[in-house]
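### Sample
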Amino acid sequence: MILEPSIDKLQTKINSKYTLVTLAAKRARQIQDTKIHQVESPKAATYVGIALEEILEETLIVDPEYKMMKE
């Protein structure tokens, strides 16, 4: 079974696997709660899959100014 989108394609959009997983998980929870997504016709059957499709289509991006550090 081949999963789409592939990790190689996703890492061209977000190069950190940690960031990719965190972003997809948070977005999947939002999609689950609101039932609203930004993909025209998603191929994925799961919320995480839809979130990953959003990342691949660049409708979901990481703010480069966001810092995950404690002050």
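Residues 15-56 form one domain. This sample (DNA-directed RNA polymerase subunit omega) is used throughout the tutorial notebook.
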